[in-house]
Amino acid sequence: MEYVTLKNGVKMPKLGYGVYQTPPEETEKCVLEAIQTGYRSIDTAQAYGNEEGVGNTLAKCGLPREEFFITTKVWISNAGYEKAKASIEESLKKLKTDYIDLLLIHQPFGDYYGTYRAMEEAYEEGKVRAIGVSNFYPDRYLDIEHFSKIKPAVNQVETHVFWQQKEAKKYMKKYGTQIMSWGPFAEGKNDYFNNPVLKEIGGKYGKSVAQVALRFLLQSDVVVIPKSVHKNRMEENFNVFDFELTAEDMAKIEGLDGGESLFFSHYDPETVEWFMTMA
Ligand SMILES: NC(=O)c1ccc[n+]([C@@H]2O[C@H](COP(=O)([O-])OP(=O)(O)OC[C@H]3O[C@@H](n4cnc5c(N)ncnc54)[C@H](OP(=O)(O)O)[C@@H]3O)[C@@H](O)[C@H]2O)c1
Q1: First to last CA, the chain
Q2: Which atom of ligand 1 is the closest one to the Cα of 226?
Q3: Residue with CA nearest ligand 1 atom 9
């Protein structure tokens, strides 16, 4: 496994396993298969309803806790200092652990500064090894970067070949915040797995579209957490450290960037109103 070192010195695997939309009843099985495949970094969230499944697997798998890097996120409905503080305790309980490796604010809505204060406190108490944010577009990212005591170590944002986050990355790089991709395959949107450019490049190395896409992100210094409930795909997605894309391959893939979300924009008032319904 390759690692990045976060701004506070904590090492984080460059490749992990995501469990968004993994049904709670399948989570234990899936996470165990991911661990058997070799994944040691698992990305969950309060909102996914499967922290318990992740925790059960960690407890049962027989490997020491220190081998793992566990990320979870505080949801909008837990925004604000008091609620966030209680929710962090709840996450620790569900994950069956006395520390979380990386804790993120899931969405930049509601009293997320209150949330961040609770996270800073948990960090100082040793309950969390690193804190950060998710879905913070450059404006909100810069705001929290400047007005926080403990600076965000990570910003997890939609990042894939069709939205490479070139602008946002500039600012994260400037302040040493690690970019982490959610949706590295854009959940298959845009006929992702049949993309002719990725297919052609993969052909040269005997690699699949998924593997080329992940490799592109890794070589662009992006941490990735692809999700799959299928063991063969978990293996495929893990097997990306034995080849290297050339500068020419990278340039071709850079050409796929459309510069905008394939899901929704956090700048769009309708999207914001939709998120408000979840608060
Ligand atoms: N912070 C946030 O707001 C946020 C938002 C979204 C996601 N995330 C995190 O990021 C992780 C990854 O994103 P995501 O789950 O949204 O989407 P994703 O990883 O881009 O795509 C997952 C989809 O691709 C399929 N797939 C996976 N590997 C494949 C392969 N090798 N070949 C063909 N199909 C493949 C999966 O199907 P099967 O499962 O059927 O194999 C699933 O439908 C999440 O699990 C979650 O941890 C965070």
Answers
A1: 38
A2: 19
A3: 182
In terms of residue numbers, what domain contains 239?
3-276
pLDDT tens profile 185-225: 999 999 999 999 999 999 999 999 999 999 999 999 999 99
Catalytic amino acids?
48
Q: Whose CA is nearest to atom 10 of ligand 1?
A: 182
220 C-alpha vs ligand 1 centroid, how far in Å?
Answer: 19
Question: How would you classify residue 272: left for phi > 0, otherwise alpha for psi between -120 and 50, otherwise beta?
Answer: alpha
182 forms bridges with which residues in the sheet?
A: 158
What are the strands of the beta sheet with 41-43, ordered from one edge? 17-18, 41-43, 69-74, 100-105, 128-134, 154-158, 178-182, 223-224
Q: Is 170 in the pocket of ligand 1 (CB under 6 A)?
A: no
Domain count, the chain: 1
CB 69, CB 13: distance < 8 Å: yes
pTM here is: 0.98
Q: Kindly report the CATH number assigned to the domain that includes residue 27.
A: 3.20.20.100
